[in-house]
Amino acid sequence: QVQLVESGGGLVQAGGSLRLSCAASGSIFRFNAMGWYRQAPGKQRELVAAITRGASTSLLDSVKGRFTISRGNAWNTVYLQMNSLKPEDTAVYYCTASRTLSMVPVDYWGQGTQVTVSS
User: In this predicted model, what pLDDT tens digit does every residue of 50-107 receive, in sequence order?
Assistant: First the structure.
């Protein structure tokens, strides 16, 4: 069994920063990519950032220059550093893992962590 546990969400003012962490346990050797999805109220879930086992990264256009995804030395921790946060970044953020490099389909989801950015 695989578990993904997020931490680091919270309330922050616009322009502030947060760092999300995701700790993976279980059969993580199956994963070739991990990433962060988010879902805002009334909106579709979207892939915000992804990182492959080889440390290649991709970011949603709207967060480029503000967010950074990184991984720990062991392939069981992923981080999302979020700077210059905007109210439109408010959402539940989910840590995800996939056997594919494209993150589609997602094989495992964390429980989600709320990020709220006040204006």
Answer: 999 989 999 999 999 999 999 998 888 999 999 999 999 999 999 999 999 988 899 9
Cα torsion through 90, 28, 33, 102, rounded to 10: -100
pLDDT of 75 reads: 84
Closest CA relative to residue 37, chosen from 97, 85, 116, 83: 97
Neighbours of 114 (CB within 10 A): 12
Give every CB contact of residue 24 below 8 A, 6+ residues apart in sequence: 2, 3, 4, 5, 31, 34, 75, 76, 77, 78, 95, 97
How is residue 20 written in tokens? 């999300």
pLDDT score recorded for residue 39 = 98
d(CA 18, CA 16): 7
And the tokens for 111?
A: 């429980």
- Residue 35 exposed, middle or buried by CB count within 10 Å (0-12, 13-18, 19+): buried
